[in-house]
Write a structure and sequence with these properties.
alpha/beta; Rossmann fold; Elongation Factor Tu (Ef-tu), domain 3; 6-stranded mixed sheet; about 30% helix
Length: about 475
């Protein structure tokens, strides 16, 4: 009878690639009861990246400081350092550092001078040294993972930063109701008026699933749409909405063209909602609706003192510093979307006001444009740390390119009376190592859902032109 193969113990050894540490400085403490191994080459690469003011450089310095704090009281690091005392109980394994020269055979074609290949050699060495334990390489670098698999080494992506495993599970902010909704939820229903809006207190099987400020709609004639104002157990309170598709509810001359746009304007125009996230493909109207709502509430209602617009400057070519001029002038090339939308909004304002003749029309258009520009400030994200915004309407464009940590830095800038609106399309991420599941935009949508002062809506339909809609489908 053949001998049984040696059973692997529960505790694994995870070998961390440098990009994991630079992506999430707390990754050392994310592996629970398992041991974490750092090759010397990982520390070398951290050293190469520690200079500068970028997010990666800050993370590299943070990791180096954390390792230094753990090593300071240790007498013998050869046996490993317990992670428990430094991780607030999150990790119970050990931190192992490479304390010896390792000579593992790699295929001759792989140059040993490359950091990546030396880390692969460490994994091969550890497999031989600990035959009863599972040794797994963790890397955010796709090519590194492909090389490891080609050599037959166990390798994984770093998943701890993922808010969701599948972006299709992301909260959309709206929910279609079944045709028999009133039959199943209308028993003992109460209704009353509150500030020109009708409220319905209902109870039924769907109520436990409702989230605060989630939109619900029932298709058919007449169409019914509402927002969830209270949700507790099997009872919920629904409130009817302002119909922004109707001309009498135009916002800065703009009307919603579909149901989701009307939902978005209900969030943008509501003073009780401090934080709004709008997701959608290009051309769904995210920036236009937000600017229209911002201008109305800043210039007409005077709810906010000014509009601040910013976006993540992920360059295709040179960095922002190579552009001439002041902060505002440097940001203008990134703000093409702002210019395009302002053109639409000044045009719609001129049309709605009407002009006596060509000259007064041109004059009023120029005056409107100057007034709008005086109230819109364009800022760079690089200078947001340490600021506090009071009574501002803050628009963050291209928010999908932010990490969760950067998003936290920005949202915590809000002072009293400030509204923050995050716009983005998680299918268009330009930041290295950031995915749909780990984007800061996905993170805030998931964490803020159900909070009474935040709202989210995913815009579904493009409203640019028949050419743009067709291109989005076929290209």
């Amino acid at each position: 009878m053949p001998a049984k193969p040696a059973r692997k113990t529960a505790s694994k050894i995870f070998v961390l690639d440098t990009n994991v540490l630079m992506h999430d400085p707390a990754s050392l403490f994310r592996f629970e009861e398992h041991d974490v191994y750092l090759p010397i080459m990982t520390l070398e690469e951290l050293d190469d990246h520690k200079k500068g003011m970028s997010e990666i450089a800050r993370n590299a310095r943070q990791v180096s400081r954390a390792i230094d704090e753990m090593l300071a009281p240790a007498d013998d690091i050869g046996e490993g350092i317990a992670l428990g005392p430094h991780s607030h109980g999150m990790a119970t394994g050990k931190l192992l550092l490479q304390t010896e020269a390792i000579h593992a055979e790699l295929p001759p074609a792989l140059p040993t001078s490359k950091y990546d290949n030396q880390i692969l050699a460490v994994v091969i060495h550890l497999q031989r040294r600990y035959p009863r334990r599972q040794v797994i390489l963790v890397s955010k670098d796709i090519n590194m993972r492909i090389k490891a698999r080609a050599l037959g080494l166990p390798v994984e992506d770093y998943f701890n930063d993922q808010v969701l495993e599948d972006s299709d599970l992301l909260y959309t902010g709206s929910r279609g109701l079944p045709a028999d909704f009133w039959e199943t939820h209308g028993q003992g229903m109460e209704s009353w008026k509150e500030e020109s809006r009708t409220r319905y207190r209902i109870n039924g099987p769907l109520c436990p699933d409702f989230l605060l400020n989630e939109f619900v709609y029932l298709e058919g004639e007449p169409e019914f749409s509402a927002i969830v104002r209270e949700a507790a157990g099997k009872r919920a309170v629904l409130e009817t909405l302002a119909d922004y598709t109707h001309p009498k509810h135009a916002v800065w001359g703009i009307n919603a063209r579909n149901r989701e746009q009307s939902f978005a304007l209900n969030l943008l125009m509501n003073p009780d909602i401090d934080f709004v996230t709008l997701l959608g493909q290009a051309g769904t109207g995210k920036t236009l609706l937000t600017l229209a709502a911002a201008l109305t509430q800043t210039l007409e209602i005077k709810r906010y003192a000014e509009i601040i617009m910013t976006r993540v400057t992920v360059p295709v070519g040179e960095d922002i510093g190579f552009l001439p001029g002041s902060e505002e002038e440097k940001m203008l090339p990134w703000m093409g979307a702002l210019e395009d939308n302002l053109e639409v909004l000044t045009h719609s304002e001129e049309n709605s006001g009407g002009a006596n003749n060509h000259f007064s029309g041109e004059w009023s258009k120029a005056a409107t444009r100057d007034l709008i520009r005086s109230r819109i400030k364009v800022k760079s994200l690089n200078f947001m740390r340490g600021r506090t915004f009071l009574k501002k309407f803050l628009i963050l464009d291209e928010a999908q390119n932010l990490t969760p940590k950067q998003m936290k830095t920005l949202v915590t800038r809000a002072g009293p009376g400030t509204k923050i609106v995050c716009l983005g399309n998680i299918a268009q991420i330009d930041t290295p190592y950031l995915t749909e599941g780990s984007s800061g935009l996905t993170y805030v949508v998931d964490r803020f859902k159900g909070w009474p002062h935040s709202g989210h809506i995913t815009l579904q339909r493009g409203e640019r032109s028949r050419l743009a809609d067709h291109a989005a489908e076929v290209l």
